[in-house]
Design brief:
By secondary structure, the chain is mostly helical. It has five helices and two strands.
Length: 110
C-alpha cells in the first residue's frame, strides 16, 4: 500500500528540484491530497498477495500525476501572485487552489 509519507516526500522533493517549496497551507493541502490518494488505493486494490505487483505501476503513475499537479501550481503563480510574491519561490494555497481548478479530477488525488 502506498504511504502518505512517500507521496508527500515525492511532492516536496519534486518542488525543491523545480526550485520551490510549499507554504504551510499548501503543504497541508498536499498532505490531504496524499491521504486521499492512499484511500483511493485502498478502495481499488484488495489485500491479496498479488496486490503489491499490481499496485506499484499505479503508484509510479500517481507520482507522475503529482508532478503534473505541481507543474500546474508553478504555472498558476503567474495568475495568482503579484511581483513580490513571484520572487519568493513559494507554492502556496492560492496556487494549489488554481491548479486544482485546472486539473481535477486527477486520479488518485482529486
Amino acid at each position: 500500500m502506498p504511504s502518505k509519507a512517500r507521496l508527500v516526500k515525492f511532492a516536496r522533493d519534486y518542488g525543491h528540484q523545480r526550485g520551490f517549496s510549499f507554504g504551510e497551507g499548501a503543504d497541508s493541502d498536499i498532505q490531504r491530497m496524499a491521504e486521499h490518494a492512499v484511500n483511493e488505493f485502498k478502495k481499488k486494490f484488495d489485500t491479496s498477495g498479488k496486490r503489491r505487483r499490481v499496485e506499484e505501476p499505479f503508484l509510479r503513475m500517481a507520482e507522475q500525476q503529482l508532478a503534473f499537479f505541481i507543474e500546474a501550481m508553478i504555472l498558476a503563480r503567474e495568475e495568482v501572485y503579484d511581483a513580490k510574491r513571484m520572487g519568493e519561490n513559494i507554492l502556496g494555497e492560492d496556487t494549489y487552489a488554481k491548479a486544482r481548478a485546472w486539473v481535477c479530477p486527477l486520479w488518485p488525488f482529486c
